[in-house]
Design brief:
CATH architecture of chain B: Orthogonal Bundle
Helix content of chain B: over 70%
Strand content of chain B: under 5%
Radius of gyration of chain B: 20 Å
CATH architecture of the largest domain in chain A: 3-Layer(aba) Sandwich
Largest interface: A-B, 43 and 39 residues
Strand content of chain A: 15-25%
Number of domains of chain B: 1
Oligomer: heterodimer
Largest sheet of chain B: 2 strands, antiparallel
CATH class of the largest domain in chain A: Alpha Beta
Shape of chain A: globular
Distance between the termini of chain B: 21 Å
Shape of chain B: globular
Number of helices of chain A: 18
Structural class of chain B: mainly alpha
Strand order of the largest sheet of chain B: 1-2
Strand order of the largest sheet of chain A: 6-7-8-3-9-10
Distance between the termini of chain A: 40 Å
CATH topology of chain B: ABC transporter involved in vitamin B12 uptake, BtuC
Largest sheet of chain A: 6 strands, mixed
Chain lengths: 496, 344
């Protein structure tokens, strides 16, 4: 929309490497005032890296960085902040023990002349800002007591109302419910009309097309295309992102894909009248061998708690749980693992060792099987290498520190650790959150293979798309109880 | 240096990163080593009596008790926990082994003489039990290790006080006397015990499944739990290992000093923590190892010993030690940051 004018931010020939792996190769990028700029690309394509350079997270890179026509270098996120650049990162970064108001004003609380925080003013202003954004919470509640989706909204609100003139949102909608997404988009458009520049990264291509003025496509660290959103289509973008026929892939994760009939195998997991204070009320279900059971619900519906109970991290207040016909009370996650239950949690931070090499991340769950006392490094690496090849983890170097892999590849590593000795029951929380089309497709294929091997699989997600594309049978959880049991498998919409 | 991945790194890590980046990531291993070389060179130049074979033997003997205690503490700090009860447990174990040994008639302690081996086993059982209490407090009740072991520090000191009641015991079982103050072929047994325990600790951390779990729990406790590790069992184990190492150090220490009495080991708390941290084991867990602890032991040993060789106000020594510890802490925290940057 403002193509004629000179951009407020202009990057030329940006190159950035992590430990020899090039994340960006000579990328040009320009952002104009009053524009919403969408970024799409597969995991590891370089979107987040470029945005982190703009936000001062990565101060070291080569290339030219022009802000307001002047060459600039940020040495830290502080510098970027001072220059009016705000970023909402993919992973939630809030202070759960502080109040909502403190989180909104994190770093610049209103103070009086003596330097004391003006609590009343802070609470009032935080409340006003949040209600402008359609969030109705008491600003003095502890943030950690709120559902994750709300926490993410508050983090977004903090950046949106910080007065930044360039706002970067990295995958902001992944934990939001549809009405929350609507409110976010309305606010973005309003800010845009007031002259703010916004960069919007998302794997939801429909969202990108709807909200952005310009779309840039990344692939393998290069900028592939930049077009006005009005001039392109979902299929064209997907094709540009993955560099091969997008049709088939698009097809594979939208509604009308046919899966084989749901399994009639024996029940691997039987859950009866499971209750957890405030989170779950008398939940009963079965998961059968050779079947993917999808459990769908909004943030805070009790899904997370359910998955934690299945894996022995939380103890239910009531109800029983049986694996392969044996009643179990897991006293630890180790007990659950030995009983044949595996869990991949929703947060990468919680499931991986970023400072350790890939092979140790993969072998961690099989060590007990391959070594009594002494480690067997050769065997460990061989196991890891096989998984890396099977799951096409990039780069395929098992000795590389995990932190150097892109998010999607890290997700595959998290899954890989359970696959050498497949469990009886695999619980996946948000298995495709924040993933691009190609990686999603890979995960779908992995899950299908595992189902064919006779595993019982439970997929818990807040994204209807994920549950629809993976599950044979879907249960909907609402405020800790089932709301519509066994919905038609291919219904286009799920909900209550 | 001792962390298992750098031990195997050159063979198969294809790391095409620059030298500067590599040095940065290895900062925690390099800095203590440079400190050691610098201190040694400084004292060698400053004092002719420092760099002699005899004095090297002195240094080795002087760091032995700290070394034995530091083995267990390395496990604890690798798990991002702390054990403040090490010196007290060393003390009470040393006193206990004397308490179960027949003392000379002039020693006014109501002790319970036992055969030597029984006395040793009872003392070991005592320190293991105290470690188990630490472990249960930490894992079952959920008391932070800092506070739990602070309480244990008092409890162990209290047991010590009740056993000796202000008196001093001198006799310990013959085996302990030999290991604590004897020598073989000119090498003090206590140095050999310390070396064996450090080696054992290193092998355990580097080549066993348990050692791997210690690093993983220290690196990311939540991820370890989600990988199905029994995190509580591992944390509990390191607390017991720490207490038992302290107990062994305490028994040999008592033999080494020639007496068992209250508050005998007070300086060993700070020294052991300093040795582990100065050596470069991360206070945030998951990084470092026994190799680091050995370097840290020598840095402290050279410093303590060297300051005696140069003409320096003995009161200033305390301040200097404090400043060196502060410098090491700064490097420790800074090294973590550099490593994260290098990995980024």
């Amino acid at each position: 929309m403002s193509q004629g004018r000179s951009p407020i931010l202009e990057l030329n020939q940006i190159t950035k490497a992590f430990g020899g792996v090039e994340a960006l190769r000579g990328v040009d990028f320009a952002l104009h005032a009053g524009e919403i700029h969408g970024l799409v690309g597969e995991n590891g394509a370089g979107k987040s890296t470029l945005m982190k350079i703009i936000a001062g997270v990565h101060p070291e890179f080569s290339g030219r960085f022009m802000l307001d026509g002047k060459e600039t270098r940020f040495r830290s996120t502080r510098d970027a902040h001072a220059a009016g650049i705000g970023m909402v990162h993919q992973e939630l970064s809030v202070a759960p023990d502080l109040t909502v108001a403190e989180n909104v004003f994190l770093g610049n609380q209103p103070t009086n002349r003596l330097g004391f925080v003006q609590w009343r003013r802070m609470a009032r202003e935080a409340g006003e800002q949040l209600s402008r954004f359609g969030i109705d919470v008491d600003p003095m509640t502890r943030l950690g007591d709120l559902p994750i989706g709300l926490q993410q909204l508050i983090e977004i609100a903090r950046v949106l109302f910080s007065g930044a003139r360039i706002i970067i949102l990295d995958e902001p909608t992944s934990a939001l419910s549809p009405p929350e997404v609507e409110r976010l988009f309305a606010t973005l458009q309003k800010l845009r009309d007031e002259g703010t520049s916004i960069v919007f990264i998302s794997h939801f291509i429909e969202d990108i097309l709807r909200v952005s003025d310009v779309v840039t496509v990344f692939r393998n660290g290069r900028k592939i295309a930049e077009t006005a959103s009005a001039d392109t289509t979902k299929g064209a973008l997907i094709e540009a992102m993955i560099g091969r026929g997008g049709e088939a892939l698009e097809h594979s994760y939208t509604d009308d894909l046919m899966l084989p009939q749901s399994g009639t195998g024996p029940a691997v997991l039987k859950v009866d009248q499971l209750s957890l204070r405030r989170s779950l009320q008398d939940v009963s279900f079965e998961a059968r061998a050779g079947e993917v059971l999808g459990i769908y619900g909004f943030m805070g519906c009790g899904q997370l708690e359910l998955s934690r109970i299945l894996f022995g991290k939380l103890r239910p207040d009531g109800g029983t749980l049986a694996v392969d016909g044996t009643a179990r009370t897991f006293r630890s996650t180790a007990a659950a693992r030995r009983a044949g239950v595996a869990l991949v949690p929703e947060s990468r931070r919680a499931m991986l060792f970023h400072q350790e090499p890939v092979y140790k991340n993969i072998s961690i769950s099989v060590l007990e099987r391959i070594s009594a006392v002494l480690l067997k490094p050769v065997r460990e690496r061989a196991i890891a290498q096989r998984q890396v090849e099977q799951l096409q983890i990039r780069p395929p170097v098992v000795g590389l520190d995990l932190g150097m892999l892109s998010g999607g590849n890290q997700q595959k590593v998290a899954l890989a650790k359970w696959l050498t000795y497949p469990p009886r029951l695999l619980v996946l929380c948000e298995p495709t959150r924040g993933m691009d089309v190609g990686a999603k497709n890979d995960v779908i294929n992995i899950v299908r293979d595992l189902r064919a091997k006779g595993l019982a699989i439970i997929v818990l997600s807040t994204e209807p798309e994920t549950v629809l594309s993976l599950a044979d049978r879907i249960l909907v959880l609402k405020r800790g109880a089932w709301c519509a049991n066994s919905l038609a498998r291919r219904s286009a919409r799920i909900g209550c | 240096m001792a962390s298992s991945d750098s031990a195997t790194a050159p063979a198969d890590h294809k790391r095409p990163r620059g030298l500067a980046s590599f040095l940065r990531s290895q900062m925690r291993n390099i800095a203590p080593f440079l400190t050691l070389i610098f201190l040694s060179a400084f004292f060698a130049i400053a004092s002719p009596s420092f760099a002699t074979i005899d004095n090297v033997g002195n240094i080795l003997t002087q760091v032995s008790v700290t070394g034995i205690i530091a083995v267990g503490l390395t496990f604890v700090i690798l798990c991002a926990e702390i054990d403040l009860s090490i010196a007290s447990i060393a003390n009470v174990t040393g006193i206990a082994v004397a308490y179960f040994t027949l003392q000379e008639s002039y020693v006014n302690i109501a002790n319970v003489p036992m055969p030597g081996i029984v006395a040793i086993l009872l003392a070991l059982a005592l320190c293991a039990l105290l470690g188990l209490v630490n472990a249960l407090g930490l894992t079952m009740i959920g008391i932070p290790s800092f506070i739990m072991t602070l309480a244990m520090m008092q409890i162990a000191a209290g047991v010590s006080a009740l056993l000796v009641r202000g008196q001093i015991a001198y006799k310990v079982p013959d085996l302990i006397t030999t290991l604590g103050s004897g020598s073989i072929g000119g090498i003090p047994w206590i140095v050999i015990v310390a070396a064996v325990m450090l080696l054992g600790g290193h092998l355990m951390l580097t080549y066993t499944r348990f050692g791997r779990y210690v690093y993983m729990v220290g690196g990311n406790r939540e991820a370890a739990e989600f990988a199905g590790l029994n995190v509580k069992l591992i944390l509990g184990s390191v607390m017991v290992i720490s207490a038992v190492c302290s107990g062994i150090g305490g028994m040999l220490g008592v033999a080494h000093f020639g007496s068992a009495q209250q508050n005998e080991f007070d300086t060993y708390l700070l020294d052991s923590i300093a040795a582990v941290v100065v050596g470069g084991t991360s206070l945030f867990g998951g990084r470092g190892g026994i190799g680091n602890t050995i370097v840290g032991l020598f840095v402290l040993g050279v410093l303590n010993n060297g300051l005696d060789h140069v003409n320096i106000d003995s009161f200033l020594k305390i301040l200097i030690r404090g400043l060196i510890l502060l410098a090491a802490l700064i490097i420790n925290v800074y090294a973590q940051r550099l490593r994260e940057q290098a990995a980024d």
